[in-house]
Amino acid sequence: MSVAFRRESDEEHLEPKFELPIPPGPNYVTPTGLAQIEARLAALEAAVEAGGTDEQVKALRRDLRYWHQRHSSAIPAPHPAAGTVGIGSTVTFTLRGKRQTMTITGHDEADPARGKIAFASPLARALLGLSAGDFADFGGAEESIEINEVSAA
After folding, report:
1. Interval 108-117: pLDDT, tens
2. Cα separation of 58 and 80, whole Å?
3. Nearest partner of 75 among 87, 65, 83, 84, judged by Cα
4. Any idea what DSSP says for residue 153?
5. Taking the mean position of all CA atoms in its chain, how far away is CA 80?
C-alpha cells in the first residue's frame, strides 16, 4: 500500500520532547541557590502527586528529573576570601563608565535582570578572584572593568 493512503497517527507530527539541558561544568550553588532547588523539587513533587493530563504529568516529570539531577550534583560554593570576588559575592564595578552591582551565583539561581549572574558567564569569569581597586579586561578591551567594592552576598 502506498504511503499516501495509510493513516498517520497524530503522534507523528508532534515536536519531540527533549530533556532539559544541563549546564556544563561543576554545579556550584550558594546556600540560597540550594534552598531554591529544594523548593522547586518539593513543588514539582506535589504537582506530580496532584496529577493532571498525561502531557502535563510528563512535563512535570521531565522537570522533576532535571531538578533531581541538579540537587544531586550540587556542590556548595567555597566561601571567597574577604574582599575577593567569588561565588556568592556581590560586586560593584565600573564597566565602560557605567557603575553596576552584580551578585555571582550558581547557574540555576542566576537572573541577570535582578543583578544575579552565573559564575560561568563571561562577565563573572572576568571578575572572579579580583578585589576592590583591581582592573580586568573584558569584551576585548584592556582594563575595561574597575572593581569598586566587594562584599559577601
Report:
1. 999 999 999 9
2. 40
3. 87
4. -
5. 19
DSSP 25: S
pTM of the predicted protein model:
0.79
Cα angle at 58 between 28 and 16, to 5 degrees? 90
The torsion region of residue 101 among left (phi > 0), alpha (psi -120 to 50) and beta comes to: beta
Beta bridge partners of 70: none
Low-confidence ranges of the chain (pLDDT < 70): 1-17, 153
CA atoms lying within 13 Å on the CB side of residue 91 = 34
**Residue pointed to by grid coordinates 556544563:** 24
Domain edges within the chain:
25-76, 89-152
Domain covering 89-152, topology: Chitinase A; domain 3 (3.10.50)
Answer left, alpha or beta for residue 88, where phi above 0 means left and psi between -120 and 50 means alpha.
Answer: left
* Cell representation of residue 29: 550553588
What CA–CA distance (Å, rounded) separates 18 from 20? Answer: 6
In 32-140, DSSP assigns E strands to: 74-76, 89-95, 98-105, 116-118, 135-138
